[in-house]
Amino acid sequence: MPNQLLKGKKGIIFGALDDKSIAWKIAERCVEEGAQITLTNAPVALRMGELQKLGEKLNAPVIGCDATSEEDIAALIDQSVEHLGGPLDFVLHSIGMSINVRKKKAYTGSKYDWMQKTFDISAISFHKIMQSLYQKEAMNEWGSILALSYIAAQRNFPDYGEMAESKALLESFARSFGFHYGNAKNVRVNTISQSPTITTAGSGVKGFDQFFSYADKMSPLGNASAAACADYAVFMFSDLSRMITMQNLFHDGGFSAMGMNPAVLDM
Ligand SMILES: NC(=O)c1ccc[n+]([C@@H]2O[C@H](COP(=O)([O-])OP(=O)(O)OC[C@H]3O[C@@H](n4cnc5c(N)ncnc54)[C@H](O)[C@@H]3O)[C@@H](O)[C@H]2O)c1
User: Fold this and answer.
1) Which of 122, 131, 188, 223 has the fewest CB atoms lying closer than 10 Å?
2) Domain range list for the chain
3) How many angstroms does the Cα of residue 15 sit away from the middle of ligand 1?
4) Best mutation site among 14, 22, 173, 211 for ligand 1, i.e. most ligand atoms within 8 A of its Cβ?
5) Class of domain 10-265 as given by CATH
């Protein structure tokens, strides 16, 4: 049910890979709410061709950008501002990848060059994007920047590996950059800590299917879907959330507040 909550707003959406991606659903909802966007992903992901289809549907240009490359980020921001006809109101960082997890390395046998690459892709990219936006003065006053996180930043989920530290770093960047951006331009920076969601990145975690069911049973509202996350992101990009900044916001059906749910014992 569109309400034109983002009418006249312009933004960049990072990280839509296919129609399961959380960023895909967020892009669709933002446009439904009246926003104009550009879509971006790593050049290797663009070769799949799926994002082009979304771009055509949403009338949004697709611009390649490896989120670890400062040059790519700078060019993406310049092209987006030019295409959209002025500074931005929102940016979504929906990027995550762990090399050690993907290559099935035990946490206790992690390779450090892979770990550093994981941090670069999954967390430092967030700082790089915000720094480039900040230096280029590419955000409008009261703009909103969001990244997607996971509760493994606070609690132990053994199979999540080094992504736990990536998410802790990501959330810390939101607090630190949120201070500077808030002070300078009233720009808001937050992370949404989302339920397990069946996507390419999510399904890469060992035992994901069982864990998805466990979290669904543990949460009084069940797992939050990607579509529900898109609704929340629209709210966070809208003027309705203008005094929220430097927060990690749990969007998880209540999972983060649970100790034990008897329903889980019956599983
Ligand atoms: N799926 C879940 O269970 C879940 C739960 C909580 C948080 N998240 C987070 O949500 C975000 C989106 O993940 P998703 O679940 O939609 O999966 P996804 O696989 O659809 O999205 C991950 C995206 O990261 C992109 N990416 C990887 N390396 C990149 C690079 N160098 N430059 C630019 N983009 C790059 C991929 O191409 C992909 O589009 C991630 O940050 C993820 O950690 C996911």
Assistant:
1) 131
2) 10-265
3) 6
4) 22
5) alpha beta
